[in-house]
Each structure stands twice: as structure tokens, then as C-alpha cells.
């Protein structure tokens, strides 16, 4: 399955065009390598996705072409979630 489609179907990113843009900007790593939107993902792969100040690391558990909202939980496992502190924030928020 293509990376941009997985991000959309798993609801990690709401729209496929946004998933494509995020990948094109180099904000998605597939197994610690920068990934293009057309990269093929498979079960067991790890994704690092940067959302602004937050980085989410997930492992792909299941691939399906389409899914309902209730079934999304089994598609990936969150391994780590980090929030970077802004350097210009004196309070560390």
C-alpha cells in the first residue's frame, strides 16, 4: 500500500493530499529513512510523522484498502510521542 494512502485510511492524517504534502516536505520517515508519498508500506514498518512541534512514532499492524472509524485502532500501534519545546518559550510550554 502507498504511504499517502495508509496515512489517510488509518486516519493519522485526514486527507490524502495533505499526507502527500507532508511526505513531500520530508516530515515522514519510513524505517528511519525519508519517504516519498508513493513509498510502499508493509506490516511491521515504523513511521515517524512530524506534526509541528509533535513527533509521532507508530508501527503498522494491519493494512486495509478502506476502513470504518471503529476499525482504525488496530491498524497501527503508537510506539512513542514526543513534544519538542519551543526555544523562544521561557515557560517551556
From TrEMBL:
<dbReference type="InterPro" id="IPR025490">
    <property type="entry name" value="RqcP"/>
</dbReference>
<dbReference type="GO" id="GO:0043023">
    <property type="term" value="F:ribosomal large subunit binding"/>
</dbReference>
<keyword id="KW-0648">Protein biosynthesis</keyword>
<comment type="function">
    <text>Key component of the ribosome quality control system (RQC), a ribosome-associated complex that mediates the extraction of incompletely synthesized nascent chains from stalled ribosomes and their subsequent degradation. RqcH recruits Ala-charged tRNA, and with RqcP directs the elongation of stalled nascent chains on 50S ribosomal subunits, leading to non-templated C-terminal alanine extensions (Ala tail). The Ala tail promotes nascent chain degradation. RqcP is associated with the translocation-like movement of the peptidyl-tRNA from the A-site into the P-site.</text>
</comment>
<keyword id="KW-0346">Stress response</keyword>
<protein>
    <recommendedName>
        <fullName>RQC P-site tRNA stabilizing factor</fullName>
    </recommendedName>
</protein>
<keyword id="KW-0820">tRNA-binding</keyword>
<dbReference type="InterPro" id="IPR036986">
    <property type="entry name" value="S4_RNA-bd_sf"/>
</dbReference>
<keyword id="KW-0699">rRNA-binding</keyword>
<dbReference type="GO" id="GO:0072344">
    <property type="term" value="P:rescue of stalled ribosome"/>
</dbReference>
<keyword id="KW-0694">RNA-binding</keyword>
<comment type="subunit">
    <text>Associates with stalled 50S ribosomal subunits. Binds to RqcH, 23S rRNA and the P-site tRNA. Does not require RqcH for association with 50S subunits.</text>
</comment>
<dbReference type="InterPro" id="IPR002942">
    <property type="entry name" value="S4_RNA-bd"/>
</dbReference>
<dbReference type="GO" id="GO:0019843">
    <property type="term" value="F:rRNA binding"/>
</dbReference>
<dbReference type="Pfam" id="PF01479">
    <property type="entry name" value="S4"/>
</dbReference>
<dbReference type="GO" id="GO:0000049">
    <property type="term" value="F:tRNA binding"/>
</dbReference>
<feature type="domain" description="RNA-binding S4">
    <location>
        <begin position="1"/>
        <end position="65"/>
    </location>
</feature>
<comment type="similarity">
    <text>Belongs to the RqcP family.</text>
</comment>
